[in-house]
Design the sequence.
C-alpha cells in the first residue's frame, strides 16, 4: 500500500441504542483502492458502522473519516463522494430500470450518458431490461441495478451493506466478480457480509461480532492461517446433533461445530493427522457407520467460530 | 435535468403509476359531492301531511288546499277527529299532522287563531324540517288572507328559507375534507413510504437537502389538490347548481393557503412516523377527524359543549370553511374575510417552518 491517507479511517467508534451497544470501540482503516470486507453475523454492528460512515447516524464516541473528511463535520461533502447501498433493496419498484438510474444520476447533478463508462460493466447486463419496473426484477438483477445507481456519480468510496444477502448463489458469485472488476478500476470499496465464504474475495477483512472486532483486520489468508490448532472434519451416517454431542464428549476435543455437511473438530496438543485417526476410531468404536475423519485447512469461518466461542482463543491473534 | 426537477418528476411518476390510489383520489371529490348532495341532504321532499279539520269551514278548507298545493307537501287525508292522528303517525302513513280547531275561522278573523302541528319525532331532523315546512305554508297562507299580519302564532321561531338548499352548505366542508385528505394524508404516507422502504436513507446520502426532498414531495400533491378542488366545485355547480357568488380567484388563493397548511401538517406527521401505517393513522385521527367533526362542517360549533368550543379555533379547516362559505354563498370578499384568511396565512407560515425544521438530516 502507498502512504496516501486512508480512504476510510475509523477510530474507537461507539454507538448505543438505549441499553444495547451496537458498536463498542471499533477501529479500522481502509486503504485507497482496497476491497475491504466487514464479516459478521446479523446484529454484529455492520449496518451501524456503515450508517455512521455514510453520515446518516451520529456516533456516540470515537471518530471516523471517509476520503479524508470527518463524518460529523463534513457530512454534506461526504454524501457527494460516497456511493451507498443500504442493507435492504432501496430503489423505487414502481420506476423502471432506466428511470431509477436516471433519477440517481440527476440527483448528483449528472446524467447516465455522461457516466456511462463507469457503470457500463454492470449496467450493460441489465440494459436489455431498461423498461422493466425495478420491482419486477430478479434478486440478482435488482442488485446490479442498485450497484449501478450507487456508482452513477463516480463515487470516491463505495460502501455496500450486505449486498449479497437474500440473493442466490450464482448471483452472489457474479456480484463479487463485479466488485473485483471495480477494484481493478481503482475504486475503494467497503463491503459487509454475513457469509464467511465471501471473505476470500476481499483484500482484507475485519471480523465483527457484537460491536467489537474479533481480531485486527488482515488478508483472508492471514486470518485463516492464524488458526494454529489441529483441525479435522468429520462425517458419519446418522443424526447430526447426536454426532456433534458424541464428538464434544470425546477427550482432547476443544470444539466441534457444524460446517455444511461436515462437523469441524478442533483439538489441542496433537497434530491434525493424529486427531483425525483418534476421531475415526472413537466413532467407529461407538457404532457410527461410514465415518470419515480427515485433516482440513482452516477457513475464515473456523477462525470466526474460535474467536467467537472462546475469549482466550487457541488461534493466535496477529496484530499488524 | 436539475436534481430538484427530477425529484418532482419521480414523485409525479409514483403518483401516476399507483393507478388505484390515483383513481380513488380523482374520483373521490366527485363521489363525495354526489353522495353528500343526494344522500345526506337535509332537505325534505314529499312530506306527508294529515289535516285534522275540526272546523270544516271556508277558511280551514282554503288552508288545506294551500297545503295540498305546496310542492314539498302531500296531503294524505283530512279527518275530523284528533284520535286518528297518533295511529297515522305511528303507522308511518303521515309525517306531520296539522290540527285546526273548530273555532278556526272566528279566531282567525280576530287574529287569535291557533293551530297545532304534530310531527313524527322518531326522525328528529326530518321532523323538524317537515314541521317548519307546514308552519311556513300556514304562515304564508295567513299572511295572504289576513292582510300580511302574522295571525298564526307558533311556539318556536325557526326561519325557513326555501332557497337555501342543503347542498350549498356541505360543499365548503367537503372541499376542506378533500384537500386535507390529498395534501396531508397523501404527503404523510408518501414520505413515510420512503422511510419504510429504505429509499430515504439513499436520498439522504446524496447532495439533496431535506428541504428539497420535502418540497419535491409536496409539489405534485399541490397540483393534485388543485385538480380536486376544481372537480368538487365543478360537480357541485353542474349537478346541484351550487354557485360561487364571490371571487373564484380569491377562493382558489384561499384554497392554496389551506393546502399549504395541510401539506405542512402532513410533513410534520411523517417526520415522526416511522412507517406508512403510523402516518396514515396519525393523519386520519389527527387531521381528518377534526376536519369533519370539529370544524363546524358536520356539527355546528355553537352546539358543541362549552369546553369544546375553543378547540375548532386551532383546526385549520374551521377557518377555511368560514372563508369558503363567505365567498361561495354570501359572495363577500377580502373586506369581510380578511381575518379568517390572515389566520390561515399565519398557520401556513408557522406550520411550514415547523415542517421544514422537523425534517431530519439523518435517519434518527
Sequence:
Amino acid at each position: 500500500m502507498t502512504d496516501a491517507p486512508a480512504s476510510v479511517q475509523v477510530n474507537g467508534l461507539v454507538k448505543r441504542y438505549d441499553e444495547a451497544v451496537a458498536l463498542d470501540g471499533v477501529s479500522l482503516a481502509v486503504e485507497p483502492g482496497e476491497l475491504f470486507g466487514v464479516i459478521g453475523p446479523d446484529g454484529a454492528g455492520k449496518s451501524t458502522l456503515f450508517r455512521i460512515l455514510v453520515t446518516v447516524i451520529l456516533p456516540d464516541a470515537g471518530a471516523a473519516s471517509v476520503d479524508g473528511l470527518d463524518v460529523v463535520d463534513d457530512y454534506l461533502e461526504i454524501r457527494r463522494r460516497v456511493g451507498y447501498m443500504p442493507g435492504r433493496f432501496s430503489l423505487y419498484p414502481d420506476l423502471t430500470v432506466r428511470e431509477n438510474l436516471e433519477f440517481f444520476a440527476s440527483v448528483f447533478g449528472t446524467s447516465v450518458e455522461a457516466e456511462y463508462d463507469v457503470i457500463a460493466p454492470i449496467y450493460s447486463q441489465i440494459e436489455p431490461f431498461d423498461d422493466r419496473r425495478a420491482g419486477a426484477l430478479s434478486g440478482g438483477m435488482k442488485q446490479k441495478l442498485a450497484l449501478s445507481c450507487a456508482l452513477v456519480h463516480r463515487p470516491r468510496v463505495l460502501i455496500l451493506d450486505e449486498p449479497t444477502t437474500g440473493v442466490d448463489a450464482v448471483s452472489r458469485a457474479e456480484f463479487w466478480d463485479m466488485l473485483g472488476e471495480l477494484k481493478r478500476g481503482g475504486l475503494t470499496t467497503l463491503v459487509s457480509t454475513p457469509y464467511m465464504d465471501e471473505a476470500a474475495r476481499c483484500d482484507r477483512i475485519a471480523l465483527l461480532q457484537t460491536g467489537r472486532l474479533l481480531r485486527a483486520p488482515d488478508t483472508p489468508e492471514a486470518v485463516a492461517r492464524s488458526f494454529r490448532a489441529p483441525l479435522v472434519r468429520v462425517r458419519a451416517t446418522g443424526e447430526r446433533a447426536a454426532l456433534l454431542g458424541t464428538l464434544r464428549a470425546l477427550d482432547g476435543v476443544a470444539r466441534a461445530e457444524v460446517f455444511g455437511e461436515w462437523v469441524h473438530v478442533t483439538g489441542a496438543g496433537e497434530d491434525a493427522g493424529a486427531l483425525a485417526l483418534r476421531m475415526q476410531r472413537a466413532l467407529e468404536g461407538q457404532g457410527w457407520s461410514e465415518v470419515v475423519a480427515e485433516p482440513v485447512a482452516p477457513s475464515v469461518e473456523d477462525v470466526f467460530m474460535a474467536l467467537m466461542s472462546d475469549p482466550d482463543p487457541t488461534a493466535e491473534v496477529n496484530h499488524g | 435535468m436539475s436534481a430538484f426537477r427530477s425529484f418532482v418528476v419521480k414523485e409525479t411518476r409514483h403518483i401516476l403509476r399507483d393507478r388505484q390510489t390515483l383513481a380513488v383520489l380523482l374520483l373521490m371529490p366527485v363521489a363525495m359531492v354526489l353522495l353528500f348532495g343526494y344522500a345526506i341532504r337535509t332537505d325534505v321532499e314529499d312530506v306527508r301531511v294529515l289535516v285534522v279539520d275540526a272546523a270544516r269551514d271556508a277558511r280551514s278548507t282554503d288552508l288545506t288546499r294551500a297545503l295540498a298545493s305546496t310542492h314539498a307537501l302531500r296531503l294524505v287525508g283530512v279527518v275530523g277527529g284528533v284520535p286518528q292522528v297518533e295511529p297515522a303517525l305511528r303507522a308511518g302513513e303521515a309525517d306531520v299532522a296539522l290540527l285546526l280547531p273548530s273555532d278556526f275561522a272566528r279566531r282567525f278573523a280576530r287574529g287569535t287563531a291557533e293551530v297545532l302541528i304534530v310531527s313524527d319525532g322518531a326522525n328528529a331532523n326530518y321532523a323538524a324540517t317537515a314541521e317548519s315546512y307546514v308552519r311556513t305554508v300556514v304562515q304564508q297562507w295567513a299572511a295572504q288572507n289576513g292582510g300580511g299580519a302574522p295571525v298564526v302564532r307558533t311556539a318556536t321561531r325557526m326561519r325557513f328559507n326555501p332557497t337555501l338548499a342543503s347542498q350549498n352548505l356541505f360543499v365548503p366542508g367537503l372541499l376542506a375534507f378533500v384537500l386535507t385528505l390529498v395534501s396531508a394524508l397523501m404527503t404523510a404516507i408518501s414520505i413515510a413510504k420512503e422511510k419504510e422502504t429504505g429509499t430515504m436513507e439513499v436520498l439522504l446520502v446524496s447532495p439533496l437537502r431535506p428541504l428539497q426532498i420535502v418540497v419535491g414531495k409536496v409539489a405534485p400533491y399541490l397540483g393534485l389538490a388543485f385538480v380536486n378542488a376544481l372537480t368538487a366545485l365543478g360537480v357541485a355547480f353542474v349537478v346541484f347548481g351550487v354557485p360561487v357568488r364571490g371571487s373564484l380567484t380569491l377562493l382558489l388563493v384561499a384554497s392554496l393557503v389551506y393546502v399549504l397548511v395541510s401539506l405542512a401538517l402532513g410533513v410534520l406527521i411523517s417526520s415522526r412516523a416511522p412507517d406508512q401505517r403510523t402516518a396514515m393513522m396519525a393523519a386520519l385521527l389527527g387531521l381528518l377527524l377534526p376536519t369533519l367533526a370539529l370544524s363546524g362542517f358536520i356539527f355546528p360549533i355553537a352546539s358543541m359543549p362549552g369546553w369544546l368550543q375553543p378547540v375548532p379555533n386551532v383546526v385549520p379547516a374551521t377557518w377555511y370553511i368560514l372563508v369558503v362559505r363567505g365567498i361561495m354563498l354570501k359572495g363577500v370578499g377580502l373586506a369581510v374575510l380578511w381575518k379568517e384568511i390572515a389566520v390561515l396565512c399565519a398557520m401556513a407560515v408557522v406550520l411550514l417552518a415547523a415542517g421544514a425544521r422537523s425534517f431530519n438530516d439523518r435517519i434518527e
